[in-house]
Each structure stands twice: as structure tokens, then as C-alpha cells.
Write a structure and sequence with these properties.
single chain; two-stranded antiparallel sheet; 2 strands; 43% helix
Length: 58
């Protein structure tokens, strides 16, 4: 498990937080917000951890 402070540092240094506003007719408000967090890292251990989380999330 990655320590939250370490993850915060990764996002601050090598990450990007993005929010998208998408029109959705079935939504009561007519739109929805979708968020995404991306981290770019050359650290192999971290990349393997990120891929494992992606597979578990699917």
C-alpha cells in the first residue's frame, strides 16, 4: 500500500487532476462531472503497482 503522503507528492510533482463536464440527457441536471487523476512515473515498482490497481478496478 502506498502511503497517502507519498501519493500526494507524486500527484503534486508528476501528476495531473482533470475534471470533465459532460452533457447527459438522462441526468436530472442535464450534465455530469467525471474526474481523472494521472501520474507519470519512470519508477518500475510504481508502474507495476498502478497496472495492478487498473486490472483490479476493471
Amino acid at each position: 500500500m502506498i502511503h497517502p503522503a507519498y501519493l500526494a507528492g507524486l500527484i503534486d510533482g508528476d501528476g495531473c487532476i482533470t475534471a470533465f463536464l459532460k452533457k447527459i440527457k438522462t441526468s436530472p441536471h442535464g450534465h455530469a462531472i467525471k474526474g481523472r487523476i494521472e501520474i507519470t512515473s519512470k519508477n518500475k515498482k510504481f508502474r507495476n503497482y498502478k497496472e495492478r490497481i487498473r486490472r483490479e478496478d476493471s
